[in-house]
Amino acid sequence: MKIIREIPAMKDWVRAVKKKGETICLVPTMGYLHKGHLDLMRMGKPMADHLVISIFVNPTQFGPSEDLDKYPRDLPRDTELAASVGVECIFHPSAEAMYPKGYCTYVEVENISEGLCGASRPGHFRGVATVVTKLFNIIEPDIAIFGEKDYQQLAVLRKMAEDLNMNVQVLAHPTVREDDGLAMSSRNKYLSTEQRQYALVLSQALLKARRLVEQGERSAEAIKAEAVRMIEQTPESTVDYVEIVDPALLKPVERIEGRAVMALAVRVGATRLIDNITLEAS
Ligand code: PAF
To answer: What's the 227 CA to ligand 1 centre distance in angstroms?
Structure first.
């Protein structure tokens, strides 16, 4: 297992691989790996000659009052976990290397990044799109894999790769959940034992929405109202947003016709959690 911290060294490694005509699969992460990340890596392993992950807590995607400083970090543990699923190389640059003094270039994906999390976290997707572009330029992956839990991030990055004619195939892995339904996230670590129980309301509200659609409900307003009611009844839980959107452009829909995505963000105590589900009206 190679840990590469310097951008020129990473580029040298990539150049040697490409010279042999071999392919690279990249799983970008911010570290503090959990089973969800490892499943993305397992998916990527057979898809290319080399499996690379990046571990970089990207400062440009955090707002001024967000958890950049306390975001969990544990490189020795991450290294062990990554090795256990066959990762060959970890790119782990410093913030100074990625954003040196005088840095001033950003990637903005319009429209699709403006609602949902984009509305409550201004600048977040600009930071994500920028760092992922930089990772793609440094590592030149043939394939990059992202989790569907961050549905909007996936949609933004797919659009970015398409619009900018990037030589990478952006693939999705379904959300990985704990046995009780909680979507896996590095931020679950912040939850107390009680809050961990309250956080189940996210997946429960989404499953309730799916059941309502199965029973014939088509009004997005009615489905969202039920989710809001469930969240507001849960201790320490406040709604950031509950929205039902079309799966491609992420524009809010009024009625469920065909496929739609219900996405929500909920603050449980001080921890902001997100989740989503596909709704299908037959
Ligand atoms: O999903 C994440 O962990 C991050 O947003 C990503 C894609 C690694 C960019 O920093």
So the answer is: 27
Kindly report the protein residue whose alpha carbon is nearest to atom 9 of ligand 1.
Answer: 128
Q: Is 274 part of a structural domain of the chain?
A: yes
- What's phi and psi for 197, nearest 5 deg? -70, -45
Residue listed under structure tokens 């990059």: 144
Which two structure tokens, joined as six digits, stand for 262? 């219900």
Q: What is the Å distance from ligand 1's center to 256 Cα?
A: 30
* DSSP 8-state secondary structure symbol assigned to residue 219: B
Q: What is the pLDDT of residue 2?
A: 97
> Strand pairing partners for 219?
255
Angle, CA 171 vertex, CA 168 and CA 175 arms, to 5°: 150
Question: Helix (H, G, I), strand (E, B), or coil: what is residue 146?
Answer: strand
User: 37 catalytic, yes or no?
Assistant: yes
pLDDT digits (tens, 9 = 90+) for 178-200: 999 999 999 999 999 999 999 99
The binding-site residues of ligand 1, defined as CB within 6 angstroms of any ligand atom, are: 28-30, 58, 61, 128, 131-132, 150, 153
Kind of pairing between the strands at 169-173 and 237-245: unpaired
153 and 240 inside one domain:
no
Taking a C-beta distance cutoff of 8 angstroms, is the pair 227, 208 a contact? Answer: yes
Q: Are residues 212 and 157 in the same domain?
A: no
Residue 17, H or E segment? helix 7-19
What are the φ and ψ backbone dihedral angles of 109, each rounded to 5 degrees? -105, 110
> 0.70 exceeded by the pTM?
yes
What are 58-73's pLDDT values in tens digits? 999 999 999 999 999 9
Buried b (16+ CB within 10 A) or exposed e, 72-100: eeeeeebbebbeebebbbbbbbeeeebbe
Residues 168 and 224 in one domain: no
